[in-house]
Design a protein that fits this description.
The complex is a heterodimer of chains A (317) and B (393). With 317 residues, chain A is α/β, with parallel strands linked by helices. Chain A has one domain (19-314): 3-Layer(aba) Sandwich (Rossmann fold). In chain A, 41% of the residues lie in helices and 13% in strands. Chain A has an 8-stranded mixed beta sheet with strand order 2-1-3-4-6-5-7-8, with helices on both faces. In chain B, strand 15, helix 12 (362-377) and strand 16 (387-388) form a beta-alpha-beta unit. The N and C termini of chain B lie far apart (53 Å). The chains are: A alpha/beta (317), B alpha/beta (393). At the A-B interface, strand 1, strand 2, helix 4 and helix 6 of A face strand 3, helix 3, helix 4 and strand 9 of B.
């Protein structure tokens, strides 16, 4: 593409995109997230899509720590943090309280959205039980998992969402264990789908409009909704902060993290990818994969292709 | 005094459920565990029959039960949960949250021993494990008190904005039917007025709850909590006064039984207090100068009231229903600590008994009083060793 054309396209974007996105900020600036944090960006976009009639429950983790140091807060919407592993249960309680209080005439009817935020550890490891309970009981809430693929807040320890072959501080690369993480990433969106909830989606802040659309759909649907947001982490992935958006795009374009929705059990791919880019293009940008042998990358490539084919067939493609 | 009362036969669990119904709770979140289950079963029935308008959250664990209560309370609802033994232990982490975030969650614990070995029967190990968490903790000794104290728990929790727990002994109260007096629904509703938490989660008035505190501010939050928690005792006492005026049954942090002129005080918490009363009756007839002190309030600990209750006593014999391994009985060690400042402090001898549902007959209390006197006479009271009553060796 010629340079001039690219510039022109960018200009078009400048004119058009702002009209689609509110300039209101519910996740205020001044928080302490790292430079280039994909999760803080995702939270900001999700909050824009949610608007102000919302109550947010958050798990312990990066976003809680960077945004709520007493006596300050970055939250312009009602927000509660209690402990690490109970977001699903706390949000259940809030939703039930509103239901009961409105029904009993204790408060005037109002349209409030109930939303849970947690990281990958707070979702697919320690918080899985509480989330599963809340989804099974059918509370009307949206749960957003901001997945940066390790326990970044405590210093880059592996979680069940850490991808195969990634270096972390508890899956280090050593002479005897040259691979780093030796297990495959837990497929959390599929676990949510197995609960037969009405809405499940994957998203990434590298695709901001898609992310915000999915948040709006998820929150408007009656019943539990689950959105899994891949949130690139420069600190933990060992990437330069200016590559956050690019790395997120590569995760999608290589098929490592496909974007899709499952509405009432029907799969729909969010992006048409006639051909997947090689996984190597994604891994080579990240220090956490720098030790990988060609063999290991081929194993990842094969797995990504098989998973992507399975996903396409679920979507009827 | 309210005239509209009914006398009914109710097991302790159902008495608690009646109190929760009359309190008009908005949200109940609980997980089944023996011996607490009858409480939630009865509440579920009441909701299904339309006798109570509440959301019942059948959570997947006790950890989530307390978490859901925290969320519901933060959203302004009147909430209730109950648990026992292992369930209370699984809740443990979450129990700190309502006391630190000033959420008036009300809970009932049907006290149960802790594993291992597994035991579903009563002792106070579970209650002791949560004594440092900042919940108001009260102990009932019969089903009437289970009802009364649960009613008072709602009123006091909401007035001081701290969580409150009523302890009823598993099986001894939870599964035993007793004749109790149930007041009129309206009288209880008048006694527990509607309340509005000053800082609910509401989009019209956004607040951030449960923020993170670095060292420069954490200690101040804990000081504020401790000062406010100390105040709960006087508030609870005024709630009990009002309860007494309204319903004719009177409670206080340390309740004496036949303590006039007593030189020896037995001290108990929970359902064994009634057996101990019978033992005191018999011993007094036999000429022993013994009375009974029932510790109704465990947290905040009633230091002044306890010192006052034993000021003319030479010997206090404490029964614990839990072991603090390497330390003896937790109630006994706290009683000793409370009395240490007294100029003429009595001897304090502790026994541990009734573990895992083991029975203590009247003769058992008589033995403890006799044995404690012997130990004082032999000057063995300084021994830190606590005798486990009724153990086969």
């Amino acid at each position: 593409m010629a340079e001039g054309k690219e510039k022109e396209k960018g200009k078009e974007g400048d004119l058009f995109i702002p009209r689609l996105v509110t300039t209101d900020e519910y996740f205020a600036s001044g928080h302490r997230a790292c430079m280039g944090c994909g999760e803080a960006l995702a939270v900001r976009l999700v909050c824009k899509a949610l608007g102000k009639n919302v109550i947010i429950v958050i798990a312990t983790g990066c976003m809680e720590v960077v945004s709520s140091q007493l006596p300050w807060t970055s939250w312009r919407v009602p927000w509660i943090h209690t402990i690490f592993e109970n977001v699903g249960a706390v949000v259940s309680g809030i939703e039930s309280a509103y239901k009961a209080r409105i029904r009993k005439g204790r408060i005037a009817p109002k349209d409030v959205k109930f939303v849970g935020f947690a990281g990958d550890g707070g979702t697919s490891d320690i918080g899985l039980q509480a989330l599963s309970g809340a989804m099974e009981r059918g509370h009307d809430f949206l749960y957003v998992c901001f997945d940066n693929e390790a326990y970044m807040n405590t210093g880059i320890q592996r979680s069940s969402a850490t991808p195969y072959g990634a270096w972390t501080t508890t899956a280090p690369v050593g002479e005897k264990q040259p691979l780093g993480q030796m297990t495959w990433k837990k497929n959390m969106p599929e676990i949510a789908v197995a609960h037969r909830i009405p809405y499940v989606a994957t998203a990434c802040p590298s695709y901001p409009l898609d992310l915000m659309d999915k948040v709006r759909r998820g929150v408007d649907i009656e019943g539990p909704a689950y959105i899994h947001v891949l949130s690139p982490c420069p600190t933990g992935w060992r990437t330069p902060p200016n590559l956050t958006i690019e790395v997120g795009r590569l995760a999608v374009e290589t098929g490592v993290f496909p974007l899709y929705e499952v509405i009432d059990g029907e799969y729909r791919l969010s992006l048409e990818l006639p051909e997947l880019k090689p996984v190597r293009e994604y891994t080579k940008k990240q220090g956490r994969f720098r030790h990988l042998s060609d063999d290991a990358i081929e194993r990842i490539q094969a797995r990504v292709e098989a998973d992507y084919a399975r996903l396409k067939s679920k979507a009827g493609l | 005094m309210i005239e509209m009362t009914r006398r009914v036969g109710l097991e302790g669990s159902f008495a608690v459920a009646e109190a929760v119904r009359m309190a008009n709770a908005d949200v109940i979140a609980a997980y089944p565990i023996t011996p607490q289950t009858h409480i939630v079963e009865r509440l579920a029935e009441m909701i299904a029959d339309g006798e109570l308008d509440a959301e019942f959250i059948c959570v997947e664990s006790e950890h989530s039960a307390m978490s859901a209560c925290v969320g519901a309370s933060a959203a302004g609802a009147r909430v209730f949960t109950c648990s026992a033994g292992q369930g209370l232990e699984l809740m443990h982490e979450v129990l700190y949250i309502p006391s630190s975030m000033r959420l008036p969650v009300v809970a009932v614990a049907a006290n149960r021993a802790l594993s291992a070995p597994l035991s579903i029967w009563c002792d106070h190990s579970d209650a002791m494990s949560i004594r440092d968490i900042g919940w108001i903790q009260m102990f009932a000794e019969n089903n009437q008190q289970a009802f009364d104290l649960t009613v008072c728990a709602f009123r006091v929790a909401e007035s001081v904005l701290f969580p409150a727990m009523v302890h009823i002994d598993g099986f001894f109260l939870s599964h035993v039917i007793e004749d109790i007096e149930l007041p009129d629904d309206d009288a209880v509703r008048d006694f527990i007025p509607d309340y509005e938490h000053p800082f609910v989660l509401d989009p019209d008035k956004p607040v951030s709850m449960g923020c993170f505190a670095p060292p420069f501010i954490y200690a101040e939050t804990k000081k504020a909590q401790e000062v406010a928690f100390e105040h709960t005792k006087s508030e609870l006492m005024s709630v009990w006064d009002d309860f007494g005026r309204t319903f004719g049954r009177h409670y206080s942090p340390v309740e004496p039984y036949k303590m006039e002129d007593a030189r020896i005080a037995l001290l108990t918490m929970g359902s064994y207090s009634e057996t101990a009363m019978l033992a005191v009756d018999e011993m007094q007839e036999e000429g022993v100068d013994v009375g009974l002190l029932r510790l109704r309030l465990w947290r905040p600990f009633p230091f002044a009231e306890l010192r006052d209750a034993v000021k003319n006593v030479e010997l206090v014999v404490v029964l614990d229903r839990a072991v603090s391994f390497g330390m003896g009985g937790p109630v006994c060690s706290e009683v000793r600590a409370a009395l240490y400042q007294m100029e003429n402090k009595p001897h304090v001898i502790g026994f541990i008994g009734g573990l895992g549902g083991r029975d203590i007959p009247i003769a058992g209390f008589k033995y403890m009083v006799k044995r404690a006197q012997e130990r004082v006479k032999d000057k063995k009271e300084e021994m830190e060793e606590t005798e486990l009553f009724g153990v086969r060796e």
